[in-house]
């Protein structure tokens, strides 16, 4: 009996009335496996479903990604023709494989990335092929004994050197892919040259198939709905600028608002996080953008590096907004009467700062020098000065005495907070933080203005036509005069 | 004469004494070209020299990079043996090319990245090969007319789908390379299957050469001075933590110091910038680390994702330190007597905060639960509370009156600043900023402590042996009791 019990696992439930009930498994081992399989299948189906759902959202959010996939399929189908069409096949034979491979490896989402890979691939293949053939000829002269040794050592040396070059930042930024292709082609040529007699013929065929593959890629990527890395970078920068303005607006509104938080506001406030995290994207786009030919409003030598500087200055602002955001969620808040007192001034300063950012967005979007950016910067500085003045004039001994008196009587009457921080500095502290952050943000927006003006100078933006004539009055003077 | 002059460019110098001198070019067109060439050569030599110098510094700074290059050379030389040794060549023939290619493409700096690429390559090649052969068989059945159409459509569909999958973040993080290899192999198989009869034979040979290449890579990368992505991530995180502590120390010391800035201090202060910029590196390392087998103190299922959370909390701190850093360079500074008053308290709070960070560094380096982290956190919170109390007790009307009195008499006597901001709030403002940032930094260090404790729980760190028994007294209570 004991043996039987141990050989069969049972689930027993002790019911409160003293009896116990045995839970029978559905139908032995087969049943268990079936249940297990059903569970596994369920999980897999769920995961696949989630991935598909995710994919659908990605496709809907940016249809250009779907178009990119169609472009890849198209390029591959065209290159497959080399195999299917007999006359072409007779020319290229097995080497047509290289054209297929080139298309798969080289076709990237942006035109810049495709150009980068194409140019790198062609140049590296050519260089490595020439070097490989050269070393092969030298090795041929030195006899059958020495030949494998010379070839082996040369592969070792060149592969190591090219691998090391990939660690050098300036080489990595421009020729990382080229270095890899160099190693690949060099080892293949010097190794297969050992067997194949028609080395020059092979090199010629390979180069021409790669040329076919790369030119096909370039044609498809530039002619059908091209995605320019430069345009993407341009959009990213002014979108980030807008997000920053929205975050600043959201944060200040949230801080000084009187009712509960709105959902929309909360989402708006989080925009600065995108700015904080977009460094890597900006850098890779700027790297690819410089390979792109003239397109739209962008020249071949458009100052893409300046966009990185604008991005850095935007991140600088975002750090401050991040700190401002943490002020909002801070537990200690200034008493309502003080907040009301500062609300207008702060909102004004923030709205003038946002105006400057919005003006910069327009400058970048239109690629035209703004005629009234100086005025807007002056307005911002003036509003910030006013805010600081309000803070300066606030805690005269009289004001402190009266407000504390008012507050404490209120607090006594209602039993509310306020009595917790009986000394005035603690009351003003949260406001002082916000004001000093507003000052700092305005300073950093000044940095963004400088970066954008430098871009306008480098890229030779034209002056906006519809604007008023540019005011030559310097910003500092305007502020100092108030 | 005029014609002659215009046909020849001259450089004329007007010497002050009235005569003018014609600068003769060295020797006509040839000379000019020679000078131009010399200039070009000079620039090229200089550029190459700079790159080489740069490369030398990189090699000296991290010799493991040099070792990596030697490893790549070694792996390639070994795989070349397949060509040089006749019996092996007879087995694999031209397919040995795939082994060379695999080594070049798959060999990466870290073990994790190599594993990621190897596993992706083998699985993707196998799947795509099987699918390609299957579709080929189906196409074979449907006659010569339909065959190229079926093959072409299948290439189009699968290539598009696989390309799209690379846009899905979860797929991109783990299987990006696999998706590319899938497209490559699938197109090659379905396209070359049109010609080559021995498709199974070919698939078998290709798989086995790729297996040889990948296993060689894995052997070389793990046996000779392996660089584990997990270890790198681990080091990066605790190094960043140390840098953050140093920056905080540097900033506070710089703010309250009495003499001019030291150079060492300035360098120390900039450490937080590394923390701000290390997000991308952390993410890629965490991605690779999860492919790595058990090594050293790290299991296969080590919670690498938690390191990203620690990294995020460190960046959170770094934002605040960035703002603190900008306070230092701010033009408005608190008057010396007030700064002296706060100097000790602030230094104390910062040194206790640094203690907490250093303790966390030790926890991570030793991978042992700290026995006295709770005490250190309590000390930090206590010091911060003391700092806030000092600020609270400062601006009683009496104190303001006396200090302003003192200062203004001083200012009148010496003609120094101080009279600029006659109201007390502007004097305290810079200090209030620093104090509130110190409070915020302490709060965010609390976030780092939580993230590290979560890591200790997930990775099952053991308790430190040499420490005192863990104190169960909760942190909040200790602070509240003061």
From TrEMBL, chains A, B:
GO terms for cellular component: membrane. Keywords: Ion channel, Ion transport, Membrane, Transmembrane, Transmembrane helix, Transport. It is found in: Membrane. Coiled coil: none annotated. The chain crosses the membrane at residues 66-84, 96-115, 122-139, 145-165, 177-197, 209-231. InterPro entries: ALMT. Belongs to the aromatic acid exporter (TC 2.A.85) family. This is Aluminum-activated malate transporter 10-like. It comes from Gossypium armourianum.
């Amino acid at each position: 009996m004991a043996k039987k019990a141990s050989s069969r696992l049972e689930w027993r439930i002790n019911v409160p009335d003293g009896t116990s009930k045995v839970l029978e498994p559905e139908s032995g081992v087969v049943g268990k496996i079936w249940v297990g399989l059903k569970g596994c299948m369920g999980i897999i189906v769920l995961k696949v479903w989630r991935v598909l759902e995710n994919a659908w959202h990605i496709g809907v959010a940016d249809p250009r990604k779907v178009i990119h996939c169609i472009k890849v399929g198209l390029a591959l189908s065209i290159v497959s023709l080399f195999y299917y069409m007999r006359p072409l096949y007779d020319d290229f034979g097995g080497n047509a494989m290289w054209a297929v491979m080139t298309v798969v490896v080289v076709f990237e989402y942006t035109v810049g990335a495709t150009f980068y890979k194409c140019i790198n691939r062609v140049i590296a293949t050519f260089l490595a092929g020439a070097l490989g053939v050269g070393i092969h000829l030298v090795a041929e002269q030195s006899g059958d004994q020495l030949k494998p040794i010379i070839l082996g050592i040369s592969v070792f040396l060149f592969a190591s050197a090219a691998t090391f070059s990939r660690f050098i930042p300036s080489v990595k930024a421009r020729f990382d892919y080229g270095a890899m292709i160099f190693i690949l082609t060099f080892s293949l040529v010097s190794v297969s040259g050992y067997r194949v007699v028609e080395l020059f013929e092979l090199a010629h065929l390979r180069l021409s198939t790669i040329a076919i593959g790369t030119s096909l890629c370039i044609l498809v990527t530039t002619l059908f709905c091209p995605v320019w890395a430069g345009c993407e970078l341009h959009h990213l920068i002014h979108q980030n600028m807008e997000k920053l303005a929205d975050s600043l607006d959201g944060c200040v509104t949230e801080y000084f608002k009187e009712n509960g938080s709105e959902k929309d506001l909360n989402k708006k406030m989080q925009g600065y996080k995108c700015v904080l995290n977009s460094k890597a994207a900006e850098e890779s786009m700027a790297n690819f953008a410089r390979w792109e030919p003239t397109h739209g409003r962008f020249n071949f030598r458009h100052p893409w590096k300046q966009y990185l500087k604008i991005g850095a200055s935007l991140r600088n602002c975002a750090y401050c907004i991040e700190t401002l955001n943490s002020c909002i969620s801070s537990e200690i808040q200034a008493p309502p009467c003080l907040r009301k007192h500062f609300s207008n001034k702060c909102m004004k300063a923030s709205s003038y700062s946002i105006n400057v950012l919005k003006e910069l967005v327009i400058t970048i979007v239109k690629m035209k020098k703004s005629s009234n950016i100086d005025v807007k910067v002056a307005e911002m500085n003036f509003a910030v000065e006013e805010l600081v003045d309000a803070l300066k004039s606030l805690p005269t001994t009289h004001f402190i005495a009266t407000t504390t008196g008012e507050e404490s009587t209120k607090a006594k009457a209602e039993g509310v907070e306020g009595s917790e921080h009986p000394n005035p500095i603690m009351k003003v502290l949260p406001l002082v933080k916000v004001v000093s952050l507003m000052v700092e943000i305005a300073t950093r927006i000044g940095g963004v203005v400088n970066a954008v003006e430098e871009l306008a100078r480098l890229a030779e933006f034209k002056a906006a036509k519809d604007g008023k004539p540019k005011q030559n009055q310097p910003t500092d003077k305007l502020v100092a005069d108030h």
